[in-house]
Specification:
Strand order of the largest sheet: 1-5-3
Number of helices: 14
Structural class: mainly alpha
Order of helices and strands: HEEHEHEHHEHHHHHHHHH
Oligomer: single chain
Largest sheet: 3 strands, mixed
Length: 386
């Protein structure tokens, strides 16, 4: 049996004869570890980002045209689910409709375009443009997409997404048409009234308010359900690229809170020189955008926001119990006006406390002397002058 080693690498047999330790070599002192530089030193994005960039480059190489499509009139030509099998959910459709009502339809933006993976032989050659540069008039720059006769009715427009958008545009268009019908009914009713009995106010309201609104509505409806589409060559596009085009939003997107929304709306209107009188309630709008409009249309709420704007969003974040729902309920309730008036008065008194008043001892002595005598009225006048 070999002798047992001690902690100092010596054996029990050699104890007392030598205390020298065996010299060791550290790994870092050798060439065993790879010390080659990681790259050129300029940095590099993650592998997942590089892969996505590669797919986007391949997708751009497969684009053969741009065009306009009427999602409402040509909805039966679309096929969904080939590359994106997300089921239709009406809650998302309703949310898109609300977005259209409050923010409009950015229908000709490249970022909002619907990708169509189609065969070039199914599309009429003169119904699309090979290049499209945003900035001009898209109606003049882009033709309406047309299918060849042999492709009509066979769902040849294979979409990489946009199913919810199609249904939302259809629902939104119906809402605008109903609104236009109601406005025309009011116009017809006014036309049948006796001119001698019709007030000038009604005539002015029709000419200055309803007519411009109706004109704008008609211009919007003239576009119908038109939307920008990007055409990809279905015969040349790889499966991984098609799946990339049809991918739903997977990255984290910061959403604006309700409190940030009303503050942004107020600041935007104020910067544009608008007041509470310019707030318009859009028919059909629900949720927070409707609450914002209701609140800012009140003169006392507008004044309150004007006084507390410097606090920004901290007016809400500072107290967890003061969120949008409670703010709306309080301001639209019986105590809303009283609360806003109290804030205005407190600001007034605070300004009085912290303002600099040019006054010397002689003025103070004069006021005291007047107050002690029979000239209280003069003393009050002197105090107000200060």
């Amino acid at each position: 049996m070999p002798p047992k080693k001690n902690k100092d690498k010596t054996t029990a047999k050699g104890v007392g004869k030598s205390s020298a330790k065996t010299k060791t070599t550290k790994v870092g002192e050798t060439l065993l570890l790879d010390e080659r530089p990681s790259g050129e030193g300029n940095g590099q994005v993650e592998a997942a980002v590089l892969e996505r960039q590669s797919l986007e480059g391949k997708a751009r190489d497969r684009i053969f045209g741009y065009a306009r499509v009427d999602l409402v009139k040509q909805k039966d030509e679309f096929r969904f689910g080939t590359w994106n099998d997300r089921p239709l959910q009406m809650v998302h459709v309703k949310q898109l409709v609300q977005s259209f009502l409050t923010k409009g339809t950015d229908r000709f933006a490249l970022m909002k375009a619907i990708p169509l993976i189609v065969k070039k032989t199914d599309i009429k050659e003169k119904s699309y443009k090979k290049n499209y540069i945003p900035g001009g008039n898209p109606v003049e720059a882009l033709p309406m997409l047309e299918l060849e006769d042999h492709a009509i009715g066979k769902k040849k427009l294979v979409a990489g997404g946009g199913q919810h958008r199609l249904h939302a545009v259809e629902e939104w268009t119906k809402m605008l048409q109903r609104k236009h019908t109601d406005m025309m009914r009011q116009r017809t009713h006014l036309e049948k009234q006796d001119s001698e009995e019709t007030s000038k106010t009604d005539i002015a309201e029709e000419n200055q308010t309803h007519k411009p609104q109706r004109d704008t509505l008609e211009e919007t409806l003239a576009l119908g359900g038109q939307w920008l589409v990007i055409l990809y060559d279905g015969d040349k596009i790889p499966k991984d690229v098609a799946l990339h085009l049809s991918q739903n939003e997977s990255e984290h997107v910061y959403r604006q809170t309700a409190e940030e929304g009303i503050m942004h709306m107020f600041r935007t209107m104020k910067a544009s020189g608008k007041t509470y009188r310019d707030v318009e309630e859009i028919e059909g709008v629900r949720g927070n955008p409707r609450k914002w409009a209701e609140l800012l249309a009140q003169d006392y709420v507008w004044e309150f926001m004007d006084r507390t704007e410097s606090m920004g969003i901290h007016m809400f974040d500072g107290r967890r119990n003061m969120k949008m729902q409670r703010f709306h309920g309080t301001m639209m309730g019986p105590l809303g006006g009283i609360l806003c008036y109290s804030v205005a008065q407190m600001e007034k008194y605070a300004c009085q406390c912290f303002n600099d008043v040019p006054i010397d001892e002689k003025d103070v002595d004069a006021l005291i002397e007047l107050s002690r005598g029979m000239n209280k009225r003069k003393a009050e006048e002197a105090r107000l002058k200060l």
